[in-house]
Amino acid sequence: MIVDQKIFTILQDSSNSGVELKVLLPDRKVSTVTIRRNDTADQVYEAVVVKLNMSDKAACCFYLFETVEYNFDRKLQPTEFPHNIYIQNYSTATATCITLRKWVFTLTQESFLNSDDLAINFLYWEALDKVNTGQIKADDKLYELKSLQESNKKVEYLKIARHLDGYGEVMFPHCACDSRKDGHVIAIVGTSCFKLQACKADGTLESQCIEFQWNDIKGYDVEEEGMTFSFEYERPGKKSRVVQILTPYYIYMKDCFDRIHEEKEMEE
Question: Does the keyword Repeat apply (predicted)?
Fold first, then answer.
């Protein structure tokens, strides 16, 4: 019994001891916070907010994410343990897999940060990265954006970027979908609509892209056992239809839907 108590005490001390966790910021700098091994994502994020001296407004519009694939970060659940994820994915190739990313969709909500220098800096760097990777389609504005980048005019850069196709969207990795017998889909969540971009099983883009307006989506849910996200949408003159998307990121997809609905309700 005494031995058991000693083991319990050792384990408890181990979980409560301070450890360093590196967080990649949007401006490509790394911030190191001292946390406990068993701190949740909410607790770690609070430590990051304090370390960076983020305002309350900014703190509501960012959160911790895990880089899981090239150009794709998954938002952590509030009760997940970032240190466990950090250790499991530790690699000498990258400083950390835990990253700070914006967690805001509508331009109305984002505009509240226009006078916040730290938030603007982070939003600028995220936009810059997405322009460079092609997720934000700069097209004929590319030269102007490059000029603003070279002049370090972040606010002006964002003013243009915010109105480009792809800004504020989350593009999920391609996956199977029950509405397609052959091939996959790329789910794209944004404030204007929810898109399903057709692609081949290897992710090669195809021409078809279906847009679902938020007002037409009657409901949505997740099925943990089958790792699916499903949504029901209305069809003019027809019975509504349910679509199932088979993705390991089904919880994050639901989080995106929830967040967009919350932000849209704030605007009404």
Answer: no
Cα–Cα distance between 145 and 158 in angstroms, integer?
9
Q: Which residue has the tokens 């949505």?
A: 220
pLDDT tens-digit series, residues 218-238: 999 999 888 999 999 999 889
- How far apart CA 162 and CA 178 sit, in angstroms, is 33
Residue 3 has pLDDT above 60, yes or no: no
Residues with Cβ < 8 Å from 53, sequence gap 6 or more? 118
Q: Enter the tokens of residue 43.
A: 């607790």
- Say if residues 250 and 173 touch (Cβ distance below 8 Å): no
Q: In the predicted model, is pLDDT for residue 12 greater than 60?
A: no
Gap between the Cα atoms of 62 and 58, Å rounded: 7
Output Rg (C-alpha) for the chain, integer angstroms.
21
| CB neighbour class for 238 (10 Å; exposed up to 12, middle 13-18, buried from 19) | exposed
Residue 8 is predicted with a pLDDT of 46
Q: Which two tokens stand for residue 126?
A: 């995220």
- pTM: predicted TM-score of the whole model, two decimal places: 0.91
What was the pLDDT predicted at 158? 97
Distance CA 240, CA 66 (A): 35
Residue 63 CA to residue 225 CA, distance in Å, equals 27
- Split at pLDDT 50, 70, 90, the class of 11 is very low
Question: What CA–CA distance (Å, rounded) separates 22 from 91?
Answer: 12
